[in-house]
Amino acid sequence: MLPGWVWLTGAGPGDPGLLTLHALNALRQAEVIVHDALVAPAILDWANPAATRIDMGKRGGTASPSQRDISLELVELARAGKRVLRLKGGDPFVFGRGGEEAQTLAQHGVPFRIVPGISAGIGGLAYAGIPVTHRDINASLTFVTGHDPKGRAPALDWQAIARGSGVIVIYMGMRNLGEIAGKLIAAGRGGDTPVAIVQSASTPEQRVLETTLARAAAEAEAANIGAPAIVCIGEAALMRQALDWQALATGEPLRNTDPLGLGPAER
Hints:
Keywords: Methyltransferase, Porphyrin biosynthesis, S-adenosyl-L-methionine, Transferase. Residues 7-216 form the Tetrapyrrole methylase domain. Belongs to the precorrin methyltransferase family. The chain is α/β, with parallel strands linked by helices. The protein has helices at residues 21-29, 41-44, 67-79, 98-107, 120-127, 158-164, 177-186, 216-222, 240-243, 245-249, and strands spanning 6-10, 32-35, 52-55, 84-88, 112-115, 141-145, 167-171, 194-199, 207-212, 229-233. It has two domains: 6-118, Cobalt-precorrin-4 Transmethylase, domain 1 (3-Layer(aba) Sandwich); 121-249, Tetrapyrrole methylase, C-terminal domain (Methyltransferase, Cobalt-precorrin-4 Transmethylase, Domain 2, 2-Layer Sandwich), CATH 3.30.950.10. Helices cover 29% and strands 18% of the residues. Strand 8 (194-199) and strand 9 (207-212) form a beta hairpin. Helix 3 crosses helix 4 (98-107). The termini are far apart. The model has no long low-confidence stretch (mean pLDDT 94).
């Protein structure tokens, strides 16, 4: 890292082993680390011991730094000649506001580098044994944020999403899950559509709820499944029955190696 630069870097969904080598290099060289709340402590343990750590995590229901304050803090630190690591959960450019922060840096003439990370909507679901694409299931995939800037369900063309996407992955959607499910069902998506909700994906605290679109919100509440969580809607959720590799590693048998009833996979 060069003095006066900012590295906007993804830390992945949680498991420290999913960190990239570029991210690890930045951790070891940074003089200041501005990190989100969801970055695992074990990842921060790899940081330069002399680095200053600044927690800029946004937490629902509590006072949190504004996006403007975070972006301008990065500008000030870089202008002071610091090697700055902006460490964000997942990938900085997937619902991570990395684009906003990078744009602020560009507008203030601060040099920056983007280091992608593994997004929870892909890597987190993979840790639950759920492939977001599968030849027999979907030729399209839609990533959706679960809330707008005011915390409400986003105003999207839910009919187009319901009809056109084989698999829908919702980030930050637990607060509005019932409303979103209702919009999708009203748009024609079946209430019996398989759903998987993965809480704290890829961490030791990971929990997975398998349910349906009509029952997802109520069953998540009953099971005390909450944020941070990723929601997968579509037949891909059924593949967990065949691909739950973490259960297999503990000696549990797979529940169904052909959950779609399509016969041998090598056809």
